[in-house]
Amino acid sequence: MNLRGPKKRVTPEVNLTSMIDVLFLLILFFMVSTTFDRFGRVRVELPDAQAQAESRREPDRIDVVVDTEGQVFVGDRELVNTDIETVKRGLLEVAGERRDLPVVIAADARAPHGAVIKVMDAASQVGLVQIAFAVRAPAPQP
Hints:
- The protein is 30% helix and 13% strand.
- By secondary structure, it is an alpha/beta fold.
- It has one domain (38-142).
- α2 packs across α3.
């Protein structure tokens, strides 16, 4: 006489909970350890200046980068050409309806003078009159 009844087969199961936990920890580690650079895609060598660094940063501003070839970047986007109308459209797209936003021009030390003047002219034509230049502090002399 068999009192136990029919044998139940237990199917093997892989527990994925611990593997998912490890995956989330890896994702978190890589997100935290990654450095974010404002001008990471464009290599720009800023000119030196003796002025003190600004203590507070303006939360809303338009960043414009001019590289060594004279190519213009408004915000994070590269403009298709350097015509003044294209620069004006790029500035208007970032500014929207606001005309009180400051424009910060980060021009390479070897950038063509005309490209920087074109950006300044385009900004003033669309009503953006607060224009500043990004510079880096000189290295301390030993």
